[in-house]
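Per your request, structure below.
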């Protein structure tokens, strides 16, 4: 039996895509390998949001080809969609398949032995477009031709211990045109999974034993806007509560415009929705937000965050923040830093601007020197660490609900609280258990806990 290995890079949506690929490959009669070293067929599901993401993919290709020179390497995902010729030229790559044809990968894997030369590959009529001039077989088409979401549910795997919080990707693509972002051109237009399909997949996860799922998407809050008549994201969340037995729904990143009063009230009012709001910011400077082509102003954003905090004082509230965007002066960075300091964030994901070919910002004047951008990154990470420490201290002596993830060899178990805090729990506990835990202190970037009060 042929063995495959899938390695994912980047966001939750990419992770969900990778799980879908694994299910499709298994359906072709292939078996999962423990590592790329042991696999005959290796899929690298790439990201291209930054130059560093591209570098990570190239490094992985070189390493796998060096350690397993007989493996057939297929590169897919956002990097493959953006720069297929660049990827195809890398030594060891057999196929390059863009996001446009990701649904064909299992078919390609099954026919792999037939594709012994480029002539035969060109005659493989199931593939809509094959480039025979590139060093590797290159299959990339128009991503904007896709008007429906083609996705399989997260594969439960052989053991529930492999993953306790599966991603359920219900939306893909983005209709926004932020000046720094390459994602719309490699993911296509916003498209949503049908509501009945979402319910079906969520119930399948419940039947497989999962207790918490993470709703994910590229622009998750736009779910349902491509339907006729339109639906709204909060309708999806309500349907999950009403029509499935999932014990906990965690909502991944949702843009500030889509945190409606109804959604805030829904999240705050249900014990089955994790008290966690990730609201991308990018910058607290109005001038920079306008240059980024973001669709909100700082005061709009601040109002949303304060509403979320007032409705859920103990909720985790996080944001993506970018530093070093072209034209970001010291004064504008300080404006952003001060804005962030005065909002009740509990964590930040801080990114240094990375110029992406083909985006408007790549041609903007006043590019910020890398050393300055990195120093600004450090400043915000220090601020985020301070805020996170203050947030964690609040819960010493309290009890928190948490789901166990995996036991550590040193005699403790990692868990994640309802409000997105890492918990180090004494003793070894099975994964996927929901416990009420007494918090005894803090440690590193998480919390220390004594024995659980009770199972839930």
């Amino acid at each position: 039996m042929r063995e495959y290995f899938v390695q994912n890079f980047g966001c939750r949506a990419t992770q969900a895509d990778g799980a879908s690929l694994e299910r499709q490959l298994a359906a072709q009669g292939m078996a999962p390998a423990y590592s790329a070293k042991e696999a005959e067929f290796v899929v690298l599901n790439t990201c291209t949001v930054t130059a560093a993401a591209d570098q990570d993919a190239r490094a992985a290709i070189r390493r796998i080809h060096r350690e397993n020179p007989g493996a057939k390497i297929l590169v897919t995902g956002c990097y493959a969609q953006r720069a297929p010729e660049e990827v195809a030229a890398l030594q060891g790559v057999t196929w390059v398949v863009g996001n446009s044809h990701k649904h064909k990968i299992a078919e390609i894997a099954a026919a792999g032995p037939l594709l012994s030369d480029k002539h035969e590959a060109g005659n493989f009529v199931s593939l809509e477009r094959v480039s025979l001039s590139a060093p590797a077989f290159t299959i990339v088409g128009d991503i904007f031709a896709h008007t429906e979401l083609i996705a399989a549910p997260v594969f439960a795997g052989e053991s529930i211990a492999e993953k306790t919080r599966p991603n359920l990707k219900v939306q893909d693509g983005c209709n926004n045109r932020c000046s720094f972002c390459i994602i719309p051109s490699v993911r296509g237009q916003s498209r949503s999974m049908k509501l009945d399909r979402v319910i079906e997949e969520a119930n399948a996860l419940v039947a497989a034993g999962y207790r918490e799922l993470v709703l994910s998407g590229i622009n998750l809050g736009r779910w349902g806007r491509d339907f006729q008549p339109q639906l709204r994201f909060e309708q999806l969340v309500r349907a999950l509560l009403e029509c499935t037995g999932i014990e906990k729904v965690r909502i991944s990143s949702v843009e500030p415009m889509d945190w409606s009063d109804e959604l805030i009230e829904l999240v705050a009012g249900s014990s089955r929705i994790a008290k966690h709001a990730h609201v991308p910011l990018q910058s607290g400077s109005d001038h920079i937000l306008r240059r980024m082509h973001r669709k909100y102003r700082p005061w709009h954003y601040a109002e949303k965050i304060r509403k979320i905090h007032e409705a859920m004082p103990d909720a985790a509230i996080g944001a993506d923040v970018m530093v070093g965007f072209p034209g970001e002066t010291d004064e504008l960075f300080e404006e952003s830093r001060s804005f962030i300091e005065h909002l009740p964030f509990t964590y930040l994901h801080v990114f240094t601007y990375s110029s992406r070919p083909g985006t408007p910002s790549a041609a903007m004047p006043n590019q910020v020197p890398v050393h300055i951008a990195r120093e600004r990154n450090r400043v915000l990470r220090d601020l985020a660490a301070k805020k996170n420490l203050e947030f964690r201290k609040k819960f010493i002596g309290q009890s928190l609900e948490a789901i166990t993830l995996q036991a550590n060899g040193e005699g403790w178990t990692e868990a994640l609280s309802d409000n997105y805090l890492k918990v180090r729990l004494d003793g070894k506990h099975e994964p996927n258990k929901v416990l009420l835990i007494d918090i005894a202190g803090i440690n590193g970037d998480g919390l220390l806990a004594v024995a659980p009060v009770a199972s839930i």
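Confidence is low (pLDDT under 50) at residues 113-133, 152-162.

Regards,
D.
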